[in-house]
Every structure is written in C-alpha cells, then in structure tokens.
Write a structure and sequence with these properties.
The complex is a heterodimer of chains A (122) and B (352).
Chain A: E1 4-8, H1 12-24, E2 28-32, H2 35-42, E3 49-52, H3 61-70, E4 79-83, H4 88-97, E5 101-104, H5 109-119
Parallel strand pairs in A: 1-2, 1-3, 3-4, 4-5
Helix pairs in contact in A: 1-5, 2-3
Chain B: H1 2-32, H2 38-98, E1 103-104, E2 110-111, H3 113-180, H4 185-223, H5 227-281, H6 284-307, H7 316-325, H8 330-336, E3 349-351
Antiparallel strand pairs in B: 1-2
Helix pairs in contact in B: 1-2, 1-6, 1-8, 2-5, 2-6, 3-4, 3-5
The chains are: A alpha/beta (122), B mainly alpha (352).
C-alpha cells in the first residue's frame, strides 16, 4: 500500500491528470472538489500529503490550509499548492497559511513527483 | 481563444467609459447649447445613454451565460478525454507488463523463455557428457576383459605345451627304465605317475581354454563384437546433434519472439510517454476555464451595473482594479495591460 495523497481541485480534468501521475508512481490517491469537500473526506482518515488548488468555489485553497492547520491530526500534514495563480501576494498568503510548496500550472508530472518526494521523504 | 478573451476584457472595460462618457458629453453639450436646440440635444443624449444602458443590461448577461455554457461543455469534454487517455496509459502499462512472461526457477529466480532455453541447453550438454563418459568407461572395461581373456588363453596353451613335454619326458623315462631292467622297476612307477600328471595337466589346459572361450562368448553376447559399441557411440552423437538442433531452433524462435516483444515494448513505452505528454497539455483547459469564468463574471457584473444605473458614479480605475482582483493567470494580467502575452511562470515550483 502506497502513501496516501489527497488531490483537491474543482477541475475534474486536472484532478485526473494529477491522479494519473501519482498512481503511476505507486501513491494511493483520494480526490476532493473543493476545500469543504476535502475537510469532510479527511475527517478521521489518514493522509500523508495534500495537493491543493487555490481558486475554488465553496472553500478556496488558502482557507482550506488555514483550516487544516487548526486540526491536531492534520497540523503537520504537508500541503502543496497547485495553481494557475502567479501573483507574489497570493503566494505569500499561501506561505503564511502554512503551505510548504507552490507549483504553478501547467506542470510536468516529474515536477510534481519530485516535489512530492521532497515534501514527503520515504 | 486567449486573444478573444482579452477582447472580452477590453470590451467590458470599454462599456463603462462609454456609459460615463455619454453622460459627460450630454452635460457639455447642454452647457454649449444656449439656443433653441438645447433641449433637443439633451433628449438625444439621454436616449443614447438609455439605449446603451439597456443594451448592456440585457446583452451582457446573455454573453456571460454563453461563455459559462461553453466553458462547462469544454470542461465536461476535456474531463472525459482526459479519463480516456488516462485509461489508455493504464492499459498500455498493463500490456507492457503482460508481454514480460517469466517463470520462477527452483532457486527462486525470475526467468524468461530465453533464459530457460539456455539453462536447458546447458543441462542437456551435461547429460550428454555423462552418457559419453559412461560409454568411454564401458569400452575401457571391455578392452581390459578382452586382454585378460587373451592372456588366459595363452596360459592354457602353455599348460598344454608343458603337459606334452612332461609326457615326452615320461616316455623317455619309461624307455630308460626298461633298459635298466630290474633296477629300473621303481623308476618305471615314477614315470607312470609322471605320465598321469601330464595327462591331467593337458586336460586342465583344455578346460581352461574352454572356460576362456565360454567367457569370451558371454562377453560377445553382452557387448557384441565391438561394432555395437561403435553404433552406441554414434547413436549418442546423433542424439546430441538432434537435441542441439532442436534447441537451436527453439532458441532462434524465442530470440525472434523476444525481439518482437522488445520492439513492442519500446513502441508501447514511446506511445505511453506521448499520451502522458498529451495529458500534460490538457492542462490548458484549466487555464481557459478560469479565464472564461473571469470574463463571464466581469460581463455579468457590468450588466448589473448598467441595470442599476451605477455607471454614472463609477470610477474606471476602480472598476479595472476590481476586475484584476479576480485574475490569476499571466495572460489575464497581460491582456488587461494591453500587452502581448508575458513570460509565463509555467513549471515554476517554490518551496517554503
């Protein structure tokens, strides 16, 4: 059983692309469509890493990171932001919220896998 | 598409000043016109402003919805396309794994067909070697036995020869004993015994000779006359050639198959990489979707402004700044500033 990664993005095609890359590398992937859906799915379930979009309906990525950092069980789970957002101000906001990496879309699968292995050493 | 979107952004930015400009123009016109056409001009300006406001209030929400519908349709199609390509990648991966047929050896090693045939060839070579060794040692023993039999025959002939000489000696002794008369009587008895011994020795030589003949006969029955061992050696050599020939044919076949599989594997890998690259390219949909969404949102807001007659108090700079708040991509910011697409931050990774 591989390590568990949650992918949060309102774009189904993006979730699919990220999942394909992660599953091919042996990770176990769960998906959520926004921050709120992710918090509901996380509840009580173990996850080793979260890959999260920033701009999403219902609950955006930055709010999600702030929320997850309030929960004792998930406080230390690393979060990687995966977004089209390129403004420095948003990036700094993500860093202050507690994200560990900021990846600008479009990405190459090997980039994501490299970042995953860096944030979640074997 | 991006350029079109840029035009939407610019269009939405143009409507606001037009609305404002209409009102301002009307005011100026009133100030200038002190004559009889003042009221007429004011009515015309008010009509133009009203028509433009109505156009924005009714037309912009429709365009916004059209964009939204197109965006959703493209999203659905792209998701389905991505899933199908993802399935292809998965199937190709499974096919590539299936093409590698291996068997676990007794030692626990994973072996493919070529390795198994090579191993079988080595094992058969060892078996043939053992058979050849057995054949050689059998020939050697037979040769030795034949040598002993020949020696025994010679010894039997020697015994018969000695018996004959003793017999001649006894004959001479008998002659001498009869010449000696009474004094030779006792000697004649000895000579008689010698003759008897000679007869027994000759008989023994015959028996040995017959036994050796019997042994030779038995050996000949068991191993033939020598031509059968040659035939046996020839059979072993032929069997070896046949086995090696069959193995060589199997080896050629397996190597051919192995090369085909390798070729398919290489092609499959290349295809898989191409599909994976195509999946990466599909990410453009996410950017397009966001840009369209922001454009639709801006148009809808502009429609509401026109409907509420808020354009008269609207600051163009505030409106543009508000629009930029929703932007995320480099393309959107570049379009807002009227620039060509700026350097993209694609593939950028920042660690905190």
């Amino acid at each position: 059983m591989g390590k568990k990664i949650m992918v949060i993005d309102d774009s189904a095609s993006l979730r699919e692309v990220v999942s394909i890359a992660l599953k091919a590398a042996g990770y176990d992937v769960t998906e959520a469509v926004d921050g709120q859906d992710a918090l509901a799915k996380l509840d009580g379930n173990k996850v080793n890493l979260v890959i999260c979009d920033v701009n999403m309906p219902v609950m955006d990525g930055i709010t999600f990171v702030k929320e997850i950092k309030k929960r004792a069980d998930y406080r230390f789970v690393p979060v990687m932001m995966l977004t089209t957002e390129s403004r420095e101000s948003r990036k700094e906001e993500g860093q202050r919220a507690g994200a560990k990496a900021w990846v600008v879309k479009p990405f190459r699968p090997e980039q994501i896998l490299h970042a995953v292995s860096k944030l979640m050493p074997a | 598409m991006i350029l079109l979107l840029g035009q939407w952004g610019i269009l939405s930015a143009i409507f606001a000043p037009l609305l404002l400009g209409g009102s301002v123009a009307a005011g100026r016109y009133l100030n200038r016109a002190h004559g009889a056409g003042l009221e007429q001009a004011a009515r015309e300006a008010a009509d133009r402003t009203s028509r433009l406001r109505e156009l924005c209030a009714r037309g912009l929400p429709v365009w916004a919805q059209q964009i939204q519908t197109s965006r959703e349709s493209a999203d659905g199609a792209m998701t389905s396309l991505t899933r199908n390509f993802g399935d292809m990648v998965e199937h190709l991966g499974a096919t590539l794994s299936a093409s590698k047929v291996t068997v676990r050896s007794e030692e626990g090693r994973e072996e493919d067909a070529v390795m198994i045939i090579n191993g079988g060839e080595a094992q058969l070579a060892r078996v043939i070697g053992v058979l050849q060794e057995l054949h050689r040692s059998k020939e050697s023993i037979l040769e030795q036995v034949r040598g002993y039999a020949s020696s025994l025959q010679e010894m039997a002939a020697d015994v018969r020869q000695i018996a004959l000489q003793i017999r001649l000696l006894a004959l001479n002794g008998a002659i001498e004993a009869s010449r000696a008369g009474e004094a030779g009587k006792a000697f004649a008895v000895v000579v008689g015994e010698m003759r008897q011994l000679s007869g027994q020795s000759a008989e023994m030589g015959d028996r040995i000779s017959k036994k050796v003949d019997a042994v030779n006969h038995s050996l000949a029955g068991m191993f033939g006359d020598g031509t059968s061992t040659d035939a046996e050696a020839s059979s072993i050599q032929k069997a070896e050639r046949d086995i090696l020939s069959v193995i060589a044919r199997f080896k050629d076949l397996t190597q051919g198959l192995s090369q085909s599989v390798h070729g398919m594997e290489t092609e499959g890998k290349a295809l898989r990489e191409r599909i994976s690259e195509a999946l990466v390219d599909f990410q453009f949909q996410d950017r397009i979707s966001q840009i369209l969404s922001h454009a639709a949102q801006g148009m809808a807001q502009l429609g509401v402004l026109a409907e509420r007659r808020e354009e008269e108090t609207l600051s163009l700079e505030d409106w543009l700044a508000g629009m930029a708040e929703s932007f995320t991509t480099h393309e959107e910011f570049a379009n807002l500033q009227g620039k060509a697409r700026g350097a993209s931050a694609e593939h950028e990774v920042t660690y905190f």
